[in-house]
Write a structure and sequence with these properties.
Elements lengths: L11 E7 L5 H12 L4 E3 L8 E8 L6 H5 L3 E9 L1 E3 L8 E4 L6 H7 L5 E5 L8 E2 L2 E2 H6 L9 E15 L2 E8 L5 H11 L4 E11 L2 E2 L4 E2 L10 H11 L12 E3 L2 H8 L4 E2 L17 E6 L2 E9 L2 E7 L3
Parallel strand pairs: 1-14, 3-12, 15-17
Antiparallel strand pairs: 1-3, 2-3, 4-11, 4-12, 5-6, 7-10, 8-9, 10-11, 12-13, 16-19, 17-18, 18-19
Length: 313
């Protein structure tokens, strides 16, 4: 018999507005303790230097984290021109300077080259593993990790304004694996100067945006009564399927649900079943539900639903 997990069987998503200075893992641990959840994880690290949307999965929702991590992310950031730091943000040491400052027109003209699928060398201070070691651990020891260029996709990049000659503010939407700090470095180089990020905020991760985010301080057990804690839990906990926005859903009967839970395929070959699967392509993933509750992620192949991840709710 397996060892019983500590905590309560809490399942769903909590979207935190992580403040600058807080780490992603401590934020996850704080939310997990607040809900007394058995299991928790986050859908995409935010550096302590950055603020913004940090989606946290509790319980069975952790089985859907990959769908959120692979989705589009949006950021607002500010670049300081004329100084490059070793971390490419304002927490590092200055390693290079320049007297050159780009104009708004020059910045606008440079942006198209950084939109679409581009080659990007990740920062040395990143969580990428090299020979089993985190790049940032190697960099902190004074080593120079060999970072390989990778292809990333920038869906949109826009200049918001230039508060002064030393700074420019941007918004960006991008795919998985894109480093905003590296983009700031490369944009500065293309403009004939150097630069680093002095502000970074994530405004969206897949289906989760700022409007759904709660302050990290809301999840404190130190103040308030149990009734207030309960209200905060109910207000902030989103259902598991909130992370699966855009994935088609199909409602199953109790008998069909039982087959899926037992790891068996569900046949949908009858003529009357065609209306149930009209929006599900062959070989694609769908969300199976029963009595309005998330049941499993399934793959539709040759008229059958095959279980991919079954939720123990």
């Amino acid at each position: 018999m397996g060892r019983k997990r500590k905590g309560d069987p809490v399942h769903g998503w909590v979207v935190v507005d992580k403040p600058t200075g807080a780490g992603s893992t401590p934020a996850v641990n704080q939310v997990r303790r607040f809900f007394n959840a058995q299991k928790a994880g986050h859908a995409g690290t935010l550096d302590p230097f950055a603020s913004g949307v940090l989606p946290i999965a509790l319980g069975e929702a952790t089985k859907t984290m990959a769908y959120v991590m692979d989705s589009t992310k949006a950021y607002e950031f500010t670049v300081t021109w004329g100084q490059q730091t070793d971390t490419l943000d304002n927490e590092g040491e200055v390693v290079e300077t320049s007297d050159s400052r780009p104009t708004s027109a020059q910045i606008e003209a440079a942006l198209p080259a950084f939109t679409g699928v581009i080659e990007q060398i990740p920062p040395a201070y990143s969580a990428i593993k090299i020979d089993g070691q985190r790049a940032y651990d190697m960099a902190r020891r004074g080593e120079e990790p060999e970072m390989q260029a990778r292809r990333v996709e920038v869906l949109a990049l826009q200049l918001l304004d230039c508060p002064d000659t030393d700074h420019a503010r941007f918004t960006m939407a991008c795919g998985k694996g894109t480093y905003v700090r590296a983009l700031g470095r490369d944009l500065a180089a293309a403009l004939g100067t150097v630069g680093h990020l002095c502000q970074l905020r994530r405004t969206r991760v897949g289906p989760f945006g700022e409007s759904q985010a709660h302050a990290l301080s809301d999840f404190s057990l130190e103040a308030g009564e149990e009734s207030a804690h309960k209200a905060a839990r109910e207000r902030s906990l989103l259902p598991l399927q909130a992370s699966l926005d855009g994935i088609p859903a199909i409602a199953l009967s109790d008998m069909e649900a039982m087959r899926l839970r037992n790891g068996q395929a569900v046949s949908l070959l009858r003529k009357l079943d065609l209306e149930r699967v009209w929006n599900i392509d062959q070989g694609s993933t769908a969300l199976a539900t029963c009595a309005d509750k998330a049941l499993a992620l399934v793959r539709f192949e040759r008229g059958e639903l095959h279980p991919v991840r079954v939720f123990n709710l």
